[in-house]
Amino acid sequence: MNNQISASNISRKNSLAKRKIAAGLLSMLVLASSLPAYAAGSSQGSINQVLFMPIGAVLVVPAQIATPAACNTARRFAINTNDASGKAQLAGLLSAQASGKSVTIYGTGECNIWGDSESVQILVLQ
After folding, report:
1. Which residues on adjacent β-strands are paired with residue 104?
2. Quick one: average pLDDT of 5-10?
3. Which of residues 23 and 97 earns the better pLDDT score?
4. What's the per-residue H, E or C state across the chain?
5. How far, in Å, CA of 36 to CA of 83, rounded?
6. What was the pLDDT predicted at 2?
7. pLDDT of residue 24
8. How far is 95 from 71, CA to CA, in rounded Å?
9. Of residues 70, 69, 68, 90, the one with CA closest to residue 79
10. Which of 2, 3, 26, 69 has a CA positioned 20 to 30 A from the CA of residue 54?
11. What pLDDT score does 50 carry?
12. CA-atom Rg of the chain in angstroms
């Protein structure tokens, strides 16, 4: 009889542990599905065009964009040249374009400088 009681206790404990694991997995799934999707774009290669727009925005049209952000419907990147970091990005970009160097651009995933163009986060000159 002790063996039956012991086996029954083990079975209940296993069942309870499985329910706790299932509840934990379900709560992680609910949490993950409630978070907004965030996908930043990137590009590597040459620059086809640089557009100087009003309000200090500079739009960069790369030869190709590997993974554009959802908001990036124009398939280009934007730099805000009203601050020091934007001015440094623009200087590096123009230098790379003038010397024919390859540029890798990483976006922020947002289009908050120019509505249809992803904001630049990082420029890497090769």
Report:
1. 44, 124
2. 65
3. 97
4. CHHHHHHHHHHHHHHHHHHHHHHHHHHHHHHHHHCCCCCCCEEEECEEEEEECHHHEEEEEECCCCCCCCCCCCCCEEEECCCHHHHHHHHHHHHHHHHCCCEEEEECCCCCCECCEEEEEEEEEC
5. 29
6. 54
7. 54
8. 28
9. 90
10. 69
11. 95
12. 26
Q: Which amino acid is at 90?
A: L
For residue 120, is pLDDT > 80?
yes
Q: 28-86: per-residue pLDDT in tens?
A: 544 444 334 447 888 889 999 999 998 999 999 999 988 899 999 999 999 999 999 99
- Measure CA 3 to chain center: 57
- Determine the Cα–Cα distance for residues 48 and 15; give it in Å rounded to an integer: 62
Supply the pLDDT for residue 121.
95
Residue ranges of domains in the chain: 1-35, 42-125
Pairing of strands 118-125, 77-80: parallel
How far apart, in whole angstroms, are the C-alpha atoms of residue 44 and residue 126? 10
> Distance between CA atoms of 4 and 1, rounded to whole angstroms?
5
Place of tokens 């799934």: 29
